[in-house]
Amino acid sequence: MIEPMAGEAPSAPMREAPTQYYEALANLVSRLNPNTRETRREVYDRVRELLVLEAQQSDPPWELLDVVREQRALEEAIKEIEAEFEYEEERRRPRPPRPEEWQELERSLPPAVRRPPPRTLEQRVPVPARRADPRRVTQQQEYADTYGEPSRPGALQRIRMPRLALPNRRQVFGIAAALLVLAAAWLSIASIAGWFPFGKPETRPQTGSEQPSQSLSKQDVPPVLKLSPAEWVERGNEASKTGDFDTAIDAYGNAIRGGQRTVSVYNNRAFAFWSKGETNRAIADYDEALRVDPENIVSLANRAVAYNFRGDYELAIKDLDRALKLEPNNAEIWNSRCWGRALGGQLNEALADCAEALRLRPNDANTYDSRGFTYLKMGQFDRAISDYDNALRLNPRLAGALYGRGLAKTKKGDRGGSTDIAAAKAMKPEIEAIFSRYGVR
Hints:
Layout: H1 22-29, H2 37-57, H3 64-91, H4 99-107, H5 134-147, H6 169-193, H7 229-241, H8 245-257, H9 263-275, H10 279-292, H11 297-310, H12 313-326, H13 331-344, H14 347-360, H15 365-378, H16 381-394, H17 399-412, H18 416-427, H19 431-437
């Protein structure tokens, strides 16, 4: 699959945090049939191998710390998933016997180990009777005389409320004095700090010409806003390197409002929009870049990628035709047009474009991926598998090639296709939705 070129801004953020594997692995193992520990262990081993292979063959290779962090994150996800499966197995186990069964079990025990039976009422120790309360006897007699029947037990018990101990006059004066001292101390601290809860008092009334202006003066502007357009561009480039695309978009916007309306700024902001999934706003910035320079190759190629993602295949091919007139020996543009034509259903034309791209650059993994996708749509699964093998040999991190090879193997009846599909989903969880949008399932 084709991703847009980043222009001056880096196309991939730095590795700040390990990948979150839990959701992809959980979704993957939940679809296994049969779902046993052995089948899950095979998937885990396959994902571990792909992670190590990806770290070794990436360009540039991963740092040792990144490899350790990714492996640790993967193992934690596996541990959490297995813990959930153990919980489900424990929950589905048969419950202990009911109390009646326990009674039957107790009756079957020898007499020496049985629990002794409860004592009867006659065997219990008698409790000495209380002496009658004369007030209670009087109340009971009064109740019987009134209603003609003896009172119920506990019906006429007197409820005694606890008496509250009120403070005396000396304690009240002491509390009031303490509150006055605290209030005076608080007001003193507030006046020293310059903070007034009810508004700062004015020393003199202000006339109409002396009213404060709504706009900020130069002294009131925060230091972060005192940047030139070129400094805003640099700030946006740094934010884009770290993957902070919201900050990058704001910085590029400030540069544009400051007069820095160049092709590179529009391209970089469009790339930030694309990275956030805002395709329409990315296309709008590519339009602005092409108004500044109608023959800019990066803007034409990246806008074609965005058009393909949105489903406007004819507009994408028009942009790529313009780009090839400007640079007819650009293998990446030939590959982009191959991919766009494959998406649009022009499969034979797509094969011709991929062949030209491989002639100009023989060992290009993306071109093999595009041609394998074309063969997959044509139903030529053996050729698709061969091209996907070449793509993965050159770049094992191509999740699209791994998923496409899994689909081709599955359609041929090869059970190994499910392993490729599972590994691709672990690498890129949204890969199934992407292929479904392209009409390949």
